[in-house]
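Re: the pair you flagged

First of the two:
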Amino acid sequence: MDISSAILRYFPGSVGKALTGFEGEPFEIRLRTNRPLAVLTGDKTIFLREDGSTAQLPAEGVTVTAEDIRRTFEAVTRYSIHTVQGQIAKGFITVAGGHRAGLSGTAVYSAEGRLENLRYINGINFRIAHEIHGAADEIVNRIMAGEPKSVLIIGEPCSGKTTVLRDLCRQIGDRFPVSLIDERGEIAAESGGVPQNDVGAGTDIFSGFSKPDGIISAVRSMSPRMIFCDEIGSDEDLAALELAARSGVRAAATLHCDSTEQLMRRQKIYRLVMSGVFEYCVLVQQRRIVRIIRSEELSPAAHKRSESR
């Protein structure tokens, strides 16, 4: 599968030429100053020669220059850095299509100790969003054939959680009124208020809202049957989800977590799961659903019984 021209436009010179000649399907494109161009395909990292072929050694690949970084950074900011300053301070920029360019560089702090900016950008990790219809079929078929259920989708970074969440939102949003809290603009990929991805005919999109603000606004104003949001974790996120649950609104969310055992060690989120805010946990690995488990099966007693078998 060739890389689309919409993605290639962000990469200049020899980097763009190498990516144009690459015939695989990348999940990430990594640029580091004075380091070889790297592409992540599945769980494998490869280095590209200028013609797009795979280099046997990193040193044989295209070397990314400071000028390549500068030109790519300008392209992903649409040559207007000040309009995405808030995103830059968080370490990423979301571009059209829901793709995310993660940034590394030198931190700039305010007098109050707040991270305000990044300068001297030295690395860009371009994560390519994938819209895959059917990615959430197993969830829908097993537990949501009738009414929606609350689900927490867990997995390592780049495991495919967001892809599953996006498709779940599409499928449930075609049946019920739902609200999508798209804080980073990665799920619906709105451009000028128009979603570029299919997230459901009955989905109201809260783009750019923080998760707590978006969840509370959705509950108060849109009467959703279900709320969707990506990458929860803060105390404010959890409090907003509890409020939604008390209002009778179910939720689907993702969490960076590589196993149910690790989930059980994250006390605040584990308490949220055990309180019934999430009825099911879904484990995603290597871009596929490997386990769907009822939340009560994660109780200490149930876990102990499972270990004793």
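Second of the two:
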Amino acid sequence: MMKKHWLYTDEGRRTVWRVGLAVLAITVIVEWFVSLHPHFTIEKVFAFHAIFGFLSCVAMVLFARLLGFLIKRRDDYYDQ
């Protein structure tokens, strides 16, 4: 029997989540030390870019699910 890849183990999933959350936290914390040059007033809100990126990702996932629902075919579509 083959050994599971580390990403498929519970500890691997926890590690990926921890690293991902750490990267997100670092990107928000760095905003305190970087001089931003906002073009619009809303860009002055702290962590705007992180929030905007997250909401954009959610919108892309929802759009992909909707698109998949609209263009899906039956399992036996190509058998005809």
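The chain is about 55% helix and 0% strand.

-B.
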